[in-house]
From TrEMBL:
Its EC number is 2.8.2.-. It is found in: Endomembrane system; Golgi apparatus membrane. It is a single-pass type II membrane protein. 3'-phosphoadenylyl sulfate binds at residues 115-119, 196, 204, 321-325. InterPro entries: NST/OST, P-loop_NTPase, Sulfotransferase_dom. It comes from Astyanax mexicanus (Blind cave fish). Keywords: Disulfide bond, Glycoprotein, Golgi apparatus, Membrane, Signal-anchor, Transferase, Transmembrane, Transmembrane helix. Belongs to the sulfotransferase 1 family. This is Sulfotransferase.
């Protein structure tokens, strides 16, 4: 028997009855201490508490670590900002990992536009078994490029051969360096842009900024350089983003138009299954995400997600999606419509799609 620091008498032989009892007590005490140690999670070899699997003790991946997402964006349905739904999924990932799963650079990216409906599209796509997508916005090609492709790859979830890795960062569409950088990663990257009426998009953008900085000037005053002359301030980012044709020109220097899919932000709300059919076709996927997955919530005014053939409550996007917009003076709206008309016309021509904004 080895010397035990807890039980100094344990090595002595032969043992008188009192020492015997002391020894038994020491052994029991040690066993009890060890069990407690294991139960609180420090023991790696013994089983933990019933119901707490070894997987659930794995270190979460970078995605799970980000709870506050850029842009005040939501990381998942039903949670205000990067809520627990993401983290639950991380644990699921832990359970299903196997040797044939590896982290891959994205083969498809949702590149824009801000406030177009990019979160909804990504969440809809994540229902597809052949899509693995990072929930948070990596902002690799605009803000984190110097961190390198291995940093970027490491953000991605593990995927099986044949599954498509995806991410969404809406600011890519309007950042001039991004097309060349994505091309340098892979000229075959499939690109998806969710576009929305640029006037409504600008108001949505303004509404988001105002939700964080309530003291900003009115939408009307930010719209004009000179309101009496009716001179629109095209340098205001909320307005600049909506000049889609200009931004698209930069992408077309690197990618053919048929490598870019333009999703209508409006139809993503009124006919999510129809837009999802187009997206799945574009990505070469089976049409798995169909109308069975959508339930229109009249109170929210948006489609929410449901499990087909299930009575469970549909999950809607968090409250940062579908904010109430301020009322903007109709004259200002009209002036913005006139401002965007030539840009929209050109955009319809370039994409061979009429989005019906005019
Ligand atoms: N299903 C569903 N549920 C909720 N919201 C939906 C949905 N589909 C599209 N939208 C519209 O998405 C708008 C937000 O766009 P983004 O997700 O691209 O915003 S962000 O750029 O990531 O901040 C958001 O804009 P606002 O209505 O202005 O908040 C919505 O109109």
């Amino acid at each position: 028997m080895e010397y035990s620091p807890l039980c100094p008498a344990a090595h002595a032989t032969p043992l008188p009855p009192v020492r015997n009892k002391l020894l038994v007590l020491c052994v029991m005490l040690s066993l009890w201490a060890y069990t407690l140690y294991c139960c609180i999670g420090y023991c790696s070899t013994a089983p933990g508490l019933p119901g707490l699997s070894a997987d659930s003790r794995e270190t979460p991946s970078p995605r799970a670590l980000s709870t506050e997402l850029p842009n005040g964006d939501s990381g998942g349905f039903g949670e205000p900002d990067g809520g627990s739904s993401n983290r639950v999924e991380e644990w699921d990932e832990g359970r299903t990992l196997n040797d044939s799963e590896t982290k891959k650079l994205p083969q498809a990216i949702i590149i824009g536009v801000k406030k177009g409906g990019t979160r909804a599209l990504l969440e809809f796509l994540r229902l597809h078994p052949d899509i693995r997508a990072v929930g948070a916005e990596p902002h690799f090609f605009d803000r984190n490029y110097e961190k390198g492709l291995e940093w970027y790859r490491d953000l991605m979830p593990k995927s099986l051969e044949g599954q498509i890795t995806m991410e969404k960062t809406p600011s890519y569409f309007v950042t001039k360096e991004v097309p060349g950088r994505i091309y340098a990663m892979s000229k075959d990257t499939k690109l998806i842009v969710v576009v929305r009426d640029p006037v409504t998009r600008a108001i949505s953008d303004y509404t988001q900024t105002r939700s964080k900085k309530p003291d900003i000037p009115s939408f009307e005053s930010l719209t004009f350089k000179n309101s009496t002359a009716g001179l629109i301030d095209a340098t205001w980012s909320a307005l600049q983003i909506g000049m889609y044709a200009r931004h698209l020109e930069r992408w077309l220097r690197f990618f053919p138009i048929n490598q870019i899919l333009f999703v209508s932000g409006e139809r993503l709300i009124t006919d999510p299954a129809g837009e999802m059919a187009r997206v799945q076709d574009f990505l070469g996927l089976r049409r798995v995400v169909t109308d069975k997955y959508f339930h229109f919530n009249p109170a929210k005014g948006f489609p929410c997600l449901k499990k087909p053939e299930s009575n469970s409550k549909p999950h809607c996007l968090g409250k940062t999606k579908g904010r109430t917009h301020p009322n903007i003076h109709p004259d200002v709206i009209q002036q913005l419509r006139d401002f965007y008309k030539p840009f929209n016309k050109k955009f319809y021509h370039m994409t061979r799609q009429d989005f019906g904004w005019d």
